[in-house]
Inverse folding.
């Protein structure tokens, strides 16, 4: 007997539903698997993006934190998602600003232009007295003074500045325009981009901003060398190509601070090579040197009838051996021990006697902290009390607020400028800080906001820039006001 037709129909429907359920389960399982794969890929890629980003450099064993900490307290909070971070007697002569040259490497023309900055004067110095320092600092010279003696070494050569350059310019003298920016590296993922797009790529949106001013300063957070031996006491070390410096100089950079926690990433050889390549490129340097005398030595520049002194130092490095010694390459330390702090203050006060304007560039603070700590504030005030007119800070890799102390501007952290891009959004914001200074009248301050993209600062739009200025005003000290277009005014 054949089964009834209704029974066959029910059996067929049951089989179809069973097949549909199996198909539905298979599709859902496949979708879930794809989601897991995509999430895993995103997580791995995000971790790799932050891989070069500097992790903490905890104070090495055996170093007593109370007296000689090699990072500010609180730096232990840093994690692996943080940034990749991190002469001769003629050096005391004010340096004439060399004629700017265009960057040779081709770069795609940007379709976006930065907000205009106030430039009060074309770069001066084509007919001023003074020379470019071009000595090769890898050649040994007898150092001046002892690293523990603040009065020696930092001021022995000061008498070589001509008397006419020591005189303070009149109050109605010409204003000078000074731009300064944050941390710069040309290694790791930045190097990969530059090798593909050219070493002028970081400056595509800057135009002639650094060429039209009188002086441009930044923090060189990397040794520049083809040799050296990587430091063994750090998780992340940098090494940048000499090709980067020619492009940096062509963009308008005049002087860099080497006083930081990465300049000896490739050992003393790496530092000496960096000095050699800086000399060859025409970029001056402060904050480190072939010995303590050179590391603490100011560099002088003659601009618009004014003599400008630049001093560099660091309160962040991984171990005591990084400090420069009498016959030892290293960093100009500003820690409290061994007379380092006093030596920096003496250097500043001696520079004050010869210069119309004294600028201090320093490395300090806690990475990714939006506010300066007590050590930074105390040290900044010490710099001003010693004679500084302008204090420029770096190392936190984020922008911190400004303060005006005794009429002098302090920029606690200028953030990243040419750097890798981490997974921390606060590190993606930066600015070009511009000071316009007149003799005896102090400096005015203006900020131009940028996004810190991978290896390239990119201008913010008006809304983004206004929001960043509002944030920085909230972070600033003493009632400092910052307008939506970046004009900074002191509190009442």
């Amino acid at each position: 007997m054949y089964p009834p037709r209704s029974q066959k129909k029910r059996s067929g429907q049951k089989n179809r539903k069973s097949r549909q359920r199996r198909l539905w389960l298979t599709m859902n399982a496949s979708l879930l698997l794809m989601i897991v794969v995509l999430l895993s890929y995103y997580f791995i890629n995000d971790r790799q993006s932050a891989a070069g980003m500097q992790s903490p450099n905890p104070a090495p064993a055996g170093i007593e934190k109370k007296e000689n900490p090699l990072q500010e307290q609180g730096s232990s909070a840093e994690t692996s998602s943080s940034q990749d971070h991190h002469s001769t007697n003629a050096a005391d002569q004010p340096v004439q600003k060399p004629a700017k040259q265009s960057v040779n490497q081709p770069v795609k023309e940007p379709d976006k232009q930065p907000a205009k900055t106030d430039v009060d004067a074309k770069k001066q110095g084509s007919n001023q007295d003074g020379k470019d320092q071009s000595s090769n600092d890898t050649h040994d010279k007898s150092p001046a003074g002892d690293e523990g003696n603040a009065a020696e070494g930092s001021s022995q050569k000061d008498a070589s500045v001509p008397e006419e350059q020591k005189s303070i310019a009149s109050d109605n003298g010409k204003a000078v325009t000074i731009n300064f920016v944050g941390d710069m590296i040309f290694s790791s993922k930045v190097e990969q981009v530059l090798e593909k797009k050219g070493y002028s790529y970081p400056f595509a949106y800057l135009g002639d901003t650094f060429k039209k001013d009188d002086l441009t300063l930044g923090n060189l957070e990397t040794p520049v060398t083809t040799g050296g031996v990587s430091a063994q006491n750090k998780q992340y070390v940098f090494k940048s190509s000499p090709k980067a410096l020619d492009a940096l100089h062509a963009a308008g950079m005049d002087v860099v601070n080497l006083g930081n926690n990465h300049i000896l990433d490739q050992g003393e050889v790496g530092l000496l090579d960096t000095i050699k390549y800086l000399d060859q490129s025409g970029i001056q340097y402060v904050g480190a040197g072939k010995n303590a005398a050179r590391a603490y030595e100011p560099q002088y520049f003659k601009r618009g009838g004014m003599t400008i002194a630049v001093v560099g130092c660091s309160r962040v490095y991984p171990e005591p051996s990084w400090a420069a010694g009498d016959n030892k390459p290293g960093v100009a330390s500003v820690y409290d021990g061994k007379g380092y702090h006093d030596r920096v203050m003496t250097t500043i006060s001696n520079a004050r006697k010869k210069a119309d304007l004294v600028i201090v560039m320093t490395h300090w603070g806690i990475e990714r902290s939006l506010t300066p700590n007590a050590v930074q504030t105390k040290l900044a005030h010490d710099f001003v009390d010693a004679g500084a007119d302008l204090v420029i800070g770096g190392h936190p890799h984020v922008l911190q607020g400004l303060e005006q102390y005794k009429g002098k501007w302090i920029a606690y952290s200028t953030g990243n400028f040419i750097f890798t891009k981490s997974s921390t959004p606060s590190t993606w914001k930066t600015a070009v800080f511009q000071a316009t200074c007149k003799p005896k009248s102090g400096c005015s301050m203006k900020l131009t906001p940028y996004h810190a993209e991978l290896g390239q600062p990119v201008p913010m739009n008006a809304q983004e820039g206004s929001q960043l200025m509002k944030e920085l005003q909230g972070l600033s000290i003493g009632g400092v006001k910052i307008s939506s277009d970046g004009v900074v005014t002191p509190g009442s």
In short: Residues 239 and 335 are 26 Å apart (CA to CA). The two ends are 106 Å apart (CA to CA).
